[in-house]
Amino acid sequence: MNQWIDACSIDDLQANSGVCALVENQQVAIFYMPDDNAVYAINNYDPFSHINALSRGLIGDIKGEPMVASPIYKQHFSLKTGRCLEDENIRVETYAIRINNARVEINTNITIEEAA
Amino acid sequence: MLYAIITVIFRISSLKEEYMSNQQNLLVIGNGMVGQNFLVSLMASDIKEHCDVITFCEEPIPAYDRVHLSEYFSSKSANELSLVSPDFFNENDITIHIGDKAIAIDRNNKTVTSANGAVIAYDKLILATGSRAFVPPISGHDREGCIAYRTIADLDNMIAAAKDSKVGAVVGGGLLGLEAAKALQNLGLETNVVQFGPRLMSAQLDDGGAGLLKSKIEDLGVTVLTNKNTIKIIDGDSCRHKMIFADGTELETDMIIYSAGIRPRDEIAASCGLDIAGRGGIVIDNQCLTSDKDIYAIGECASWNDKIFGLVAPGYAMARTVVDHLAGGAEEFTGADMSTKLKLNGVDVASIGDPHASTPGSLVYSYQNGVDGVYKCLVVSQDNKQLLGAVLVGDASGYPTLTQYYLNGIELPQHPDSLILPSRSDESVGLGSDALPASAQICSCYDVSKGDVCSAVEMGCTTIGALKDETKAATGCGGCAALLKSVLDCELEKAGIEVNTDICEHFPYTRQDLYNLIMVEEIKTFHDLISKHGAGKGCEICKQVVGSILASYWNEYVLESEHVGLQDTNDTFLANMQKDGTYSVVPRMTGGEVTPEGLISIGQIAKKYGLYTKVTGGQRVDLFGARVDQLPLIWQELIAAGFESGHAYGKSLRTVKSCVGSTWCRFGVDDSVGLAVELENRFKGLRAPHKIKFAVSGCTRECAEAQSKDIGVIAVEGGWNLYVCGNGGMKPRHGDLFATNLDKQTLIKYIDRILIFYVRTADRLQRTSVWMENMEGGLDYLKSVVIDDKLGVCDQLEAQIQHVVNSYQCEWKTTIGDETKLKRFRHFVNSDKHDENIIFVEERGQIRPANLEERELLAAENA
């Protein structure tokens, strides 16, 4: 089931920030770092505050690892692996993402590692 | 040849015998804080190779932090209180019998039998059975809802019992009793503390200290009853129980928590014939050996010199002694310092040594400040040279210095009372950590000396975190954290190592440095700043700081595409994100003034969008529960009704509160509302390191509470008095009187300069109160900069504020006028659906976010 699903246009993304897309009934937070030409997709649900808000967090890097800081209680999540940098037992789902003809596509069935 | 072979065999068997005789069964009964500390110390010692270690743990979970038990009710879970890493027993090859209780010791055969029927042989036995909460043996003591305060299971019982209780009583006004009272209050109960004697914390405090503590605890809404001897508990009339006291009075309550002292658990020792002290407890000597040379006792079950030690630090010292003795060392337990410092319901309390001046010939100094609620007393030797004891209530900041005088026998200064009198000049009376000998104990919980800390710093521990990991200092009660920090700073300074003040890993600069770079090089974007002066992509710390500095200095629209990624949670959507991910909206009401039409519009808008409304402390109305897609619609309607953004979301000027002033008030001296409106309009939108609040009072009755604000103005006959750097909140600070009898023009000029000087020089997220306290030279320095223009920067400061005033914009208005910005204001970028996770329930006629439980319930109903 390697299905790429159209999420939005590349113009819908916010440079150096995040947006949330509804993909197959799942809330996917999509982050865009134009300087690195990088896009990341993780689940929008913040496991600490139990609300859908990770797309609204500040992004950047911690020791080179791209991350988003939860807008609620500021825990950091790796944009590559979804792991919480403060608590290795906590992880959010990550999704394969690609840009195809200026469209952003998500595949919720494969992980980042499989796609790469 | 034969002879040689025999010799070899003999050697092997003798080696084996030696090995066998060194390998011994070490059995520990009890896995509480002290039992666990013993295991940890043992594993860190060389003898662990020669021990097979077995331990019994009666509770269903291994050792946890009983000292911070009440935190179980607030943030911590049972897991967070745990003192044992999950793999500790496995990794160290320790057999733990969890949930099993040792019930009998057979000293002849050297075995212990457990409740589950296990029989374990021992070579050496360590009793760490602890203590139980004392429950007075009165009639009715075991009625339903009467619970001892000791274990996590007890806490679960309390939580369950609290569900259908309104009133609670704690029997015992000691340290643990007051903690239990806090827990009851947090559970929402009307709380009483019932103390047998005349004083709270009678072991640690004198009359003066206990009296002040009582009034402080009562201020927090807890009723304290002293001299109450409960004689029986019977059915209540309005509550479940009625406590009957010896003086004929009574108390109705639904729950009773016992925390009236501890009793050592010495039954298992008594039944096998070990010596028990007259007042209970297993008798031990200086090696912590009981009357049986193969059995030790440590912690609260042990009695040394007829004394039971009810704190963890002495228990840990006993554990160390036993490990040392097992290894053949000569360490002795010779009593322990019972000094203690804690925060009870937010009240600082500390006690050192002999607080009751019971030492013959001792003398007492005391200081009582009824205004600020501070009590301090020193007990000194007859020759006025040695500190014997101390009590601190309301302000325990002197504790680290005083304990050092006490523990190390350092000679007191010529006027010992200088140690407790408030210092009103720059002279410092604290004992610098540099003056301490290497043997000085820094952390009493883990017996860490200054020498230990210094060698850890030498080895490369240059942060508090690293020091804690290496030495364990400040990881027990935490009372020595400030002292540890000062030793660290002092050692680093001596070693020529600079203390790292970088804002984060992306910029090797302080906030002030970044501000200067932006100003001098006229940098306008984060991108330019990080490519010139930083590394990496940035993080939520530096982005927010730079976003704030750029906004303070250039005052461009914060949602410009170069800036939007720098804004913190609330600024990103120009509203305040609440716990459920919805936002609250606060329109500006300058000076708290609003027309009836304005109020009606706000009401109608709130009603239309189904928002929860609440009046804020800053004299305006907060509208809660707006979804992100509703924000622009709400703003549009508010703007149409004549309102603008209140900047409640920004680290910026929030409100200028005012009393009604001379316009209406019979006592008013000047027009406080008029000035408040003018000030708020001048400074609105100014971004700063933290939020800023003003207030203006129309006379010295001070109804606007201006002296608790960053900027406070009070009308007096000769003009306006200006107060600066006050604060309410977490750490209240009374504003400093900056200048008096000012005319309006001078007043505004001073405020202009002070604000921009603060914006330029403060640290990240530093309120004006802390900024002032950290400023070298303090108030006098600030006056010299602002009034005398000592630095020659006043023109610049004024020019900058004028730029901010001239470039003010209502960010809501800018946003709703820009189609591209509006795109961000929807939950999904590809759908008009709403976030289904946002669910409200009704309370007191308005909405509130559903809690997790309610969300799950509603989801189940809908499924």
CATH superfamily of the largest domain in chain B: FAD/NAD(P)-binding domain
Global outline of chain A: globular
Helix content of chain A: under 10%
The amount of beta strand of chain A, in percent, is: over 45%
Kindly report the CATH topology of the largest domain in chain B. Answer: FAD/NAD(P)-binding domain
CATH class division of the largest domain in chain B: Alpha Beta
Question: Reading side by side through the largest sheet of chain A, how are the strands ordered?
Answer: 1-11-10-4-3-2
Kindly state the number of beta strands of chain A.
Answer: 11
Task: Briefly characterize the structure.
The complex is a heterodimer of chains A (116) and B (863). Chain A is mainly beta and 116 residues long.
Topology (elements, then pairings):
The complex is a heterodimer of chains A (116) and B (863).
Chain A: E1 5-9, E2 17-23, E3 26-33, E4 38-43, E5 45-46, E6 51-52, E7 58-62, E8 65-69, E9 76-78, E10 94-100, E11 103-107, H1 112-115
Antiparallel strand pairs in A: 1-11, 2-3, 3-4, 4-10, 5-6, 7-8, 8-9, 10-11
Chain B: H1 2-22, E1 24-29, H2 33-43, E2 51-57, H3 78-81, H4 88-91, E3 95-98, E4 102-106, E5 111-114, E6 119-121, E7 124-127, E8 131-133, E9 146-148, H5 152-162, E10 167-171, H6 175-186, E11 190-194, H7 207-219, E12 223-225, E13 230-235, E14 241-245, E15 250-253, E16 255-258, E17 262-264, H8 267-271, E18 282-284, E19 295-297, E20 302-304, H9 312-326, E21 340-344, E22 347-353, E23 363-369, E24 374-380, E25 387-393, H10 399-408, E26 441-443, E27 448-449, H11 450-458, H12 464-471, H13 481-494, H14 511-520, H15 526-533, H16 540-553, H17 569-572, E28 576-577, E29 583-585, H18 596-609, E30 612-615, E31 621-626, H19 631-640, E32 653-658, H20 672-683, E33 692-697, E34 711-716, E35 719-724, E36 736-742, H21 744-761, H22 768-774, H23 778-786, H24 794-806, H25 811-816, H26 819-822, E37 840-843, E38 846-849, H27 852-862
Parallel strand pairs in B: 1-2, 1-7, 2-3, 7-19, 9-16, 10-11, 10-16, 11-12, 18-20, 32-33, 33-34
Antiparallel strand pairs in B: 4-5, 5-6, 8-17, 13-14, 14-15, 21-22, 22-25, 23-24, 24-25, 26-27, 28-29, 29-31, 30-31, 34-35, 35-36, 37-38
Helix pairs in contact in B: 2-9, 11-13, 14-16, 21-24
